[in-house]
Design a protein that fits this description.
Number of strands: 0
Structural class: mainly alpha
Strand content: under 5%
Order of helices and strands: HHHHHHHHHHHH
Distance between the termini: 100 Å
Helix content: over 70%
Radius of gyration: 30 Å
Largest sheet: none
Number of helices: 12
Length: about 260
């Protein structure tokens, strides 16, 4: 619904001849413009944006924020690998994989979204049951407190999205990944882990980090705005005329040869 209203706003701006409306719609869509951007270029950018976001739940600038935060799952998955908890490692790596598959291009009603939701739900139920069985009172309280904050972030993101604040909704959705992964790390950690065992698993952890870093470089779009080329300083016409006159005055002159008798 939020994307539909934004698309309708862009289409209305394209039908109008008001340049201010075109610039305002460009700003709402995250398209960088300047005061010198031509009206034709504004129209081309908005038309291209409509083609790019057709069928998407969020515009690319918002889904890219969530996609980047999804990679914080490396925190808890690394803890699971070091502590040799294969069940938690499968859960966390699977959560990262489903997040990447969906948030790269979050299409409405896609199979990737349904699978992502199902995976997260089943993981939460499994981990909640395991937390009650494995954790002591202090760690259990910390885990459920962070889990509650994670649910609040989700509810806040949904409310902001319904109100049309897509950027704020994306930031709150990012909180789900940030806070939730800290809670998972508390669950996965083994206080009695032997240092030698942890050191022996370190090479596998480094290999995992390399794979994740390469995946990040491939799937996460570069949303940094290109730098504008520096303009040459403008020269005052009067200053240019004065400089030309000074150069002419200082230039060496050649005397004409004397005339002979006629």
């Amino acid at each position: 619904k939020q994307m539909d209203s934004l698309q309708d706003e862009v289409k209305a701006a394209l039908r109008s001849t008001d340049r201010l409306k075109l610039r305002a719609s460009s700003d709402r869509c995250g398209i960088s413009t300047t005061t010198k951007t031509s009206t034709a270029q504004l129209r081309r950018n908005l038309q291209q944006w409509l083609e790019d976001v057709d069928g998407l739940v969020l515009p690319p600038r918002c889904s890219a924020v969530i996609l980047r935060r999804a990679f914080t799952t490396v925190l808890c998955s690394s803890v699971a690998l070091v502590c040799a908890r294969r069940d938690y490692a499968v859960i966390s790596v699977g959560t990262l994989s489903t997040s990447i598959l969906y948030w790269r291009k979050p299409r409405r009603g896609s199979v990737e979204r349904q699978f992502d939701r199902l995976w997260v739900l089943l993981s939460f139920l499994y981990q909640g049951r395991s937390a009650c069985r494995e954790l002591g009172a202090g760690r259990l309280a910390a885990y459920w407190a962070l889990a509650l904050i994670t649910l609040c972030c989700y509810a806040r993101a949904r409310r902001l999205g319904a109100a049309g604040s897509l950027d704020a909704s994306a930031r709150w959705h990012s909180g789900i990944h940030l806070v939730g992964n800290v809670a998972n790390a508390i669950l996965y950690a083994d206080p009695g882990l032997d240092a030698i065992d942890a050191w022996n698993r370190f090479p596998f952890l480094v290999a995992y980090w390399v794979v994740v870093a390469a995946t990040y470089a491939i799937v996460v779009p570069d949303t940094t705005a290109p730098k504008r080329p520096k303009r040459a300083p403008r020269q005052s016409p009067r200053l240019a005329a004065a400089a030309a006159g000074l150069a002419h005055a200082l230039a060496p002159t050649t005397r004409a040869p004397p005339r002979g008798p006629t």
